[in-house]
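A further point concerns the way the authors explain their paired sequence and structure data. An entry of this sort, consisting of the sequence and the corresponding backbone structure tokens, reads as follows:
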Amino acid sequence: MSGEAPPQLRHNSEFYLDWITFQVEDELFKIPIRCITFDTEPFKTLASRSLPSGDGPVEGMSDESPIALSDTSKVDFQRLLEVLCPLFTGVLAYRSFKPKPITSVEIWHSVLKLSTKWRLLDVRSYAIETMNQLGLSHQNMLRYGRDYKVSNWVIKGCLGFAIQEAPLSECDAKDIMQGLSLDEGVRQLMRVVGLHEKNKLSNTRGWNCPVCVFGEVRCMNCSRYSSRNSPVKTVVDEGTVRMNFKVEVAEIVADEKCFNRE
């Protein structure tokens, strides 16, 4: 009937999006609010400041009054958003709704950095899981493991230095000591050098016999000839590294527990 009142419209609970504006360094970012969790700091405090109060402007609701994120790189923040808000960026393949995989270690490093800083636990776990599949170098494993409290990376990073065929270089020494005090850095370096020498000495007899994994090119144990392509048996493994770096590993494991969901 023409005299009936029009139906009252409601906002769809899933697809009526509110937006929020952040300032990071000299750039503004406007994203759907649902892309960011407000359960952890600094967003919990920022969210309380984004509620209307009096006649003043509401933070985050306009370009003129953005929420400023201090001590944050705009490059890191953009990379985080590429993971959190893929539908709103160029991450989707051109003219396709198929997500384009993000395989850049640099992008995931930024994601891990900010998700650790802001305790975005699910994002942090996803970043670690993804980076495990990207073939991190042992240099990056050790550095990222220390910086972001990933004990398994610290162990694998130290192991990588210990079993590498090339002699430990000055750059290797800097990587091993990075982020540590001089005294602690020297101690850690000496442990890695010791493991590297131990592993090297275990292989001075040549290539392992493919039959008994004992001797040289011609095995002194079973008299068989081995191939130059036979795998070399290493005496240094993750267990060895855990024992030699147990204090540092224990400290990182304790810090790592802070990022586990209760």
About this structure: The CA atoms of residues 55 and 121 lie 36 Å apart. Residues 91-95, 205-221, 223-231 have pLDDT under 50 and may be disordered.
